[in-house]
């Protein structure tokens, strides 16, 4: 590798070599620095330059593996030196004897002291000085801190005698004051010693190397290389090679470079580094000392050395690949042992439960008696911060430590809740075991009711019924547990009336249970469901808004999702459709404790239903389609009926009958038709059959809705308007007596949806009745649909009203209503309705060219024009006020002036092409200008 930022060191060493050669002045250099900072590369460059200059170069490389081999370094130095016979024989004898570990007489060598060592020092020193007298001499020893003691004594003797000889001795050593202290002390006492420090590369040095090896156009930034290497040349070399090979940091490149450098420090530092990798974010000097059994000073010194070398920053590895490489270098058994030891260490030091549990989970099977409590507490902490995957991992391991069945059921239930919320786990893995435990009475009432909800979601009504029956038949006090069961019945009476049964439907409406007695989200769900069942939505509308607002602050309960959905249903039932859509947009990420994807899917499904009620089938279809695509079919459970019914009805209104047919043939859960969502699906399918001229099939679906509702005892206001659908089917089949019976039944019932059901009945009654009564009935229906904001139904009524006026010879009124109907149908993209409009008499369609008071449009102010355009599009005064950020009173005043300027009596007579007339008038004014 090219030497970067080492020119100063090379220049100084070259000067010392020149002075030594020309002035016979000896030089002694100790080249220090952290591990792997380029000392070896710099020494090699110095040796190469010296050999080129004509010096005799003697080299040796020390290693920890040969540190106990006497004279090992000295033999390396003198191996190729032209020595006198006496010295050569001595070196050969030393190499042979200590290589085999025995002297000539068979005794082990004792070269650490005594006259033999002193004699060896003298002979070698004199021989080397004689060589230097004939040719300048460079002696280089790399990693002197690993040299054997005998060689060090010889080198120290020589170092004292080279002051007046052309000898330059260059030694490299890591900066470790505890390594060879005696040799280091003696060396530092020599007056002619020069100390040079070699540190990590600067940012500029790193940038230069990266540009040299990867080119100036490299996608990787200098900061990335600096952050991962710390300027360590060895690590930097590995990083550059990784980017050349794979374009990323690799364990087999950078990771192995880290391992190689750690091994150079020795066993103690490598042990501390392994502990650091295992502990990860839980690593502290105290924890490292406790885990490794090393003194705190030793740990601190090792951390300082690794930090100086660029391996660590802030007490942690610089790149996540490094600890992964260290851990991967262990066997499976070793990893488990390290993590178990880490868990015990952290517990002794009082670390948080989730930190201890992380290592218990990593170790796998455990035998510590205290582990169960730690794992439960860690699961609590994980659930509180929304980390369901970690909670499930902790509970999985805790399950192994449970012996009693009630305890195992409780842990399995918590595990089921974590897996229910976690997007990457099957919510049915522990379901059967939990159901068995609930049947045996091992779950408390609150958990059992939550289990009932999840079983119903999955369509397992039989299991849910058995768990609920066990609750009802059990001995429970008339306090919180009794309140939980009562709230469950209130909720079931609206969502799954098939399970609640007639007894629950006939039960008088009860006051909501105090929220403090049970799970507040379950209590809210019960209250809202009870209001929907008994058509008291106006009484709880403020509570519904409060529930939706609270979802942003607390959503970890399994009932928060249900409460949110019921709150949106209350707003829809009250006719606050546009407001419901706004809430859906805000609550998508937080509606469900099961994660953002599920929350968005449910919010989109409700938003699609709201869009359909506003007469926007294209938007409804797109939103329902997107909702269905956010979750796998199995994750929807019976709730798939919500988006599927909306998509089916929307595609029917858009005339996309092929897509509607796919919705009809799509498999649905068996339990769907025992829930409210099943009613919505049956109702939508009936309209599909009606639109495709399968009148008897349509009638069967509508009547099935009625049979289900009556069988459940839940045929209440706010349910699907099955009577009007059945009346339309009977009308197509020519049975007018059944039409009238059903419609008068519907009109005699209260309407919980802002008159929407009444308007539907009036429309069908008008179409089925004599033309003389038709205008009055259709006019009332139109007013109700306008108040509800349903543009699609407005277009249908306007079409029928136009034809009625045409039959009554009110041609001008008929043509005006026709234009409004055509405009509304076009806005809705209702293709079948548009085709129906094309089939009206020619004089109605031709009347579109009749002059309208377009000249009056130019008299409207900009504010009046905006209000008028929104009114033509079918928005209510309240919706116009919200869109334009004004009050409803201001909207009414603007409309009054609009009626006067255009010469019309009210909203119904506003020209349908007002928007285009205004645009044309604006262009004319610009052209005139």
Write the layout of secondary structure elements.
Elements: H1 7-23, E1 27-33, H2 39-52, E2 56-61, H3 72-78, H4 85-100, H5 115-134, E3 137-142, H6 149-161, E4 167-174, H7 181-189, E5 193-197, H8 203-214, H9 222-229, H10 233-245, H11 251-265, H12 267-279, H13 285-292, H14 296-308, E6 312-313, E7 316-317, H15 321-328, H16 332-348, H17 353-363, H18 371-384, H19 388-401, H20 405-421, H21 431-439, H22 445-457, H23 461-473, H24 480-495, H25 497-506, H26 520-533, H27 537-550, H28 560-573, H29 577-587, H30 596-613, H31 617-630, H32 633-636, H33 641-654, H34 657-665, H35 676-691, H36 695-712, H37 722-733, H38 736-747, H39 756-768, H40 771-788, H41 791-807, H42 811-828, H43 831-838, H44 842-846, H45 862-872, H46 877-884, H47 888-902, H48 914-928
Parallel strand pairs: 1-4, 1-5, 2-3, 3-4
Antiparallel strand pairs: 6-7
Helix pairs in contact: 1-2, 3-4, 5-6, 8-9, 8-10, 9-10, 10-11, 11-15, 12-13, 12-15, 13-14, 16-17, 17-18, 17-19, 18-19, 19-20, 20-21, 22-23, 24-25, 24-26, 25-36, 26-27, 26-28, 27-28, 28-29, 28-30, 29-30, 30-31, 30-33, 31-33, 33-34, 33-35, 35-36, 35-37, 36-37, 37-38, 37-39, 38-39, 39-40, 40-41, ...
